[in-house]
Design a protein that fits this description.
With about 750 residues, the protein is mainly beta. It is about 15% helix and about 35% strand. The protein folds into four domains: about 10-135 and about 190-200, Sandwich (Jelly Rolls); about 205-325, Immunoglobulin-like; about 330-630, Alpha-Beta Barrel (TIM Barrel); about 635-749, Immunoglobulin-like (Sandwich), CATH 2.60.40.10. Keywords: Glycosidase, Hydrolase.
């Protein structure tokens, strides 16, 4: 059970701790350890400021156990209550002692945990807390999975884990992380107490956890047209977990108050109940109807209005922020409905960093404001869990979040693994269920991506149990078993899929959970992780370790190496910019037919690496950043060439005497129609002052639509000027404001 601590009296234990390294990790059996003894002399131990991922410190890329110790006193304002020590996040195995008393063990890298230390501490004296943090390498075997004709040494060819036993998702095994897809793909440890450590005080009878579920009020119009209609109310149902530590049965009063948080309005109070609370843990249901409810919307469809729920039991109360909304996945079509309205998700995959202790509100605010500027309305977190404040900011700003449980590739399907993962996915659900921004879940990133012939049966074993477990925490949202089933698809043209893939013969699914391509960061960034003597000519083993993926770059994307490092960087960044732009256009032209959502892989690189982000690890932009920003607008004019095969990201060449032709599309994600919109297109040669052809016309852009607006046809004369040509397109509203501008470059020979 995740215990909530918001609003409690707390005292931080963040700051300077003593530490000592120990090779390997052995689970503690509760017996006193020399390092765990309060009287142990740690005077010669070095010091480290917590929280942190120790990779970022003098410890570096260490796999094993780190012991942490510090002394503390209990502040006077916490005395007289139940006292807990709370760890926000410790990666990966944690054992904790206070004053020689073994408190317990915890496994995980994202889920908070705590221990009751009321009867262990000396309220007026000196206390010693010890944390044993074990983050060893996973013992799985790595096997070469691809045998390719390339210049890479054997250890740097693509390797795959047989059966990972640790539940860490991206933080242990993914493409774009230290070691990449080589034999060394666990490098770059995320170990450490990377979340805050606090003392938390609670009364003897306290509210430990609340889960909030909302419904939009619906009522049949019995006196009118007999249809079911929203009645303007919101139905709020709360499961409150109450803990009675008195050792006696307590008769208590409980009630629920709903108060507007982001707007002015009256509070609603009710749900009063008289409870008989036996010693221990009880779950109480409180229900309250909110009149004239303000709904939570994504920023582009309304206001992300929030409420505060205050649950009072006995002499305690707990506040939780939430939004009144309903998000529905239509299983037949794969489309999304928010508060009964069909919406299109212009999404982004996101990870703060390989080392989550680097996350803070300043960094997230900078990223999220840029996403708003790019008109992104949905974020997919996979496969890790961000700190809680990130989701709070998404609540406030109006981003819909698709959360993926931290399982990425090649994990075990053993009974033991399923049991441990189920406990953690329950924790994830309890951590995030109340966030208004949380829209949908996935229990596994890619459960069937295995290149070895003997595949674990994760989809039909692990994923099913995880879905059932998460459903007991959140029975209201859609729970996806894992990519790439149930209408979810990866289409990274020139990234994971071949750059010459014929898109007109490709079956497209509703959820494009990954699109995009790889690239090389700017030279300034490249020099921060590749030694100068390995840069040019490239030492391919070093480059592969840092994320180049030789086969994908030169056989899939077919990027030209060029004659210099600067030329190679420009070639790859230019290819990424063009192929991502054209992927966006392709998917937006298929809005609702069948595409319902699309998520670029990734916002920023999670570590210093040759990645696939819009921004690199240092938040320096790739060339693709501006290209994507230009076409991720809510209104988009785009062009679909008449070509077979239909290939994205390549040079477009036409011969004199042939025909340049295709469809002009306008996609409108706005909830209102644009009457009197002006659509224009023209073709110019090079820097010519006059177009060779073009057309301007007016019409209505229907709300929330995609339509073919025109056919573009140019019969290229036999004596046409050879060289570069550009098709430019634009859409303006009735008042002359530009809604979208776009272009397509091609060559005439």
């Amino acid at each position: 059970m995740i215990s909530l601590h918001q609003g409690r009296a707390t005292a931080t234990l963040d700051g300077t701790w003593k530490y000592r390294l120990e090779d390997g990790y052995k689970a503690s059996d509760g017996a006193p350890s020399e390092y765990a003894r309060a009287a142990h002399d740690d005077g010669d131990w070095p010091e480290l400021d917590l929280p942190t991922n120790w990779y970022l410190t003098e410890i570096g890329d260490f796999f094993g156990t780190v012991w942490f110790r510090r002394h503390f006193t209990v502040p006077a304002d916490l005395a007289g209550q139940r006292l807990f020590v709370r760890f926000e996040a410790v990666d990966y195995y944690a054992d904790v002692w206070v004053n020689d008393v073994y408190l317990g063990h915890h496994e995980g890298m994202f889920n908070p945990f705590e221990f009751d230390i009321t009867d262990v501490v000396d309220p007026g004296g000196d206390n010693v807390i010890v944390l044993k943090d074990g983050a060893p390498r996973d013992e799985t075997e790595y096997v070469q999975a691809v045998f390719s004709d390339n210049p890479l040494s054997d250890e740097y060819q693509r390797h795959q884990a047989v059966a990972i036993s640790q539940i860490k998702g991206h933080m242990i095994d993914a493409m774009h992380r230290p070691g990449s897809m080589t034999k060394f793909r666990q490098d770059g440890t995320s170990g450490g107490p990377w979340g805050s450590i606090d003392l938390v005080a609670r009364p003897d009878v306290y509210v430990d956890n609340v889960r909030i579920f909302t419904r939009i009020g619906i009522k049949k119009d019995w006196l009118g047209d007999q249809l079911d209609k929203p009645d303007g109310t919101g139905l709020v149902a709360v499961d409150a977990t109450v803990v009675n530590t008195t050792g006696e049965t307590v008769v208590a009063r409980a009630d629920l108050t709903i108060t507007p948080k982001t707007f002015d309005g009256p509070a609603t109070r009710g749900g009063e109940r008289t409870l008989v609370l036996p010693p221990g843990r009880s779950v109480v249901k409180l229900v309250l109807t909110v009149p004239e409810a303000r709904l939570w919307w994504t920023w582009d469809h309304g206001r992300p209005d929030l409420y505060t729920a205050t649950v009072r039991v006995h002499e305690d109360h707990l506040d939780q922020s939430f939004g009144i909304k309903e998000i529905r996945h239509d299983d037949a079509t794969g489309q999304w409905y928010l508060n009964g309205k069909r919406i299109f998700l212009r999404g982004m995959r996101y990870i703060t960093s390989q080392w989550l202790s680097e996350g803070n509100r300043e960094l997230w605010d900078a990223d999220l404001q840029k996403m708003l500027d790019m008109q992104i309305n949905s974020i997919r977190i996979g496969s890790h869990v961000e700190p809680d404040d990130f989701y709070t900011m998404c609540d406030e700003l109006g981003f819909l979040v698709w959360q993926v449980f931290p399982l990425h590739y090649c994990v075990s399907d053993s009974d033991d693994f399923i049991a441990r993962a189920s406990e953690m996915i329950r924790d994830m659900g309890e951590m995030l269920v109340n966030h208004a921004s949380l829209g949908m879940w996935s229990v596994f990133k890619e459960p069937e991506i295995y290149l070895l012939p003997d595949k674990p049966n994760n989809y039909f074993r692990l994923c099913q149990i995880l879905k059932e477990t998460l459903g007991t925490v959140d029975p209201t949202r859609w729970i996806h078993l894992g990519d790439y089933r149930e209408g979810a698809q990866n289409l990274m043209i020139g990234g994971v899929q071949p750059g010459d893939k014929d898109m007109h013969t490709t079956i497209v699914q509703p959820q494009i959970v990954e699109f995009g391509a790889a690239s090389i960061p700017n030279l300034e960034t490249l020099r921060t992780f590749i030694p100068e003597d390995k840069l040019w000519p490239p030492d391919w083993d070093t480059w592969e370790y840092h994320g180049l993926f030789y086969d994908l770059a030169f056989k899939g994307a077919k990027v030209e190496l060029g004659s210099s490092l600067e030329e190679f960087i420009d070639n790859y960044q230019s290819y990424e910019a063009l192929v991502v732009k054209e992927q966006i256009e392709f998917f937006r032209q298929r809005k609702y037919g069948p595409v319902a959502s699309m998520y670029l892989y990734y916002w920023s690189d999670s570590c210093p690496i040759i990645g696939s982000g819009l921004l690199d690890y240092y938040r320096r932009p790739y060339k693709v950043y501006d290209w994507m920003k230009a076409v991720y607008t809510r209104v988009l004019v785009s062009f679909e060439r008449d070509a077979s095969p239909y290939v994205l990201g390549r040079e477009k060449v036409y011969t004199r005497g042939s025909t340049f032709a295709g469809k002009l599309w306008v996609t409108n994600d706005v909830d209102t129609a644009y009457d009197g919109a002006r659509i224009a297109w023209e073709i110019r040669a090079g820097g010519a002052s006059e177009p060779v052809t073009g057309r301007t016309f007016s019409g209505t852009l229907p709300a929330d639509s995609v339509e073919q607006a025109d056919n573009v046809v140019w019969d290229i004369p036999a004596d046409a000027e050879p060289g570069a040509h550009r098709l430019t397109m634009s859409v303006m509203d009735g008042g002359g404001e530009v809604l979208s501008e776009n272009f397509l470059d091609f060559e005439v020979r």
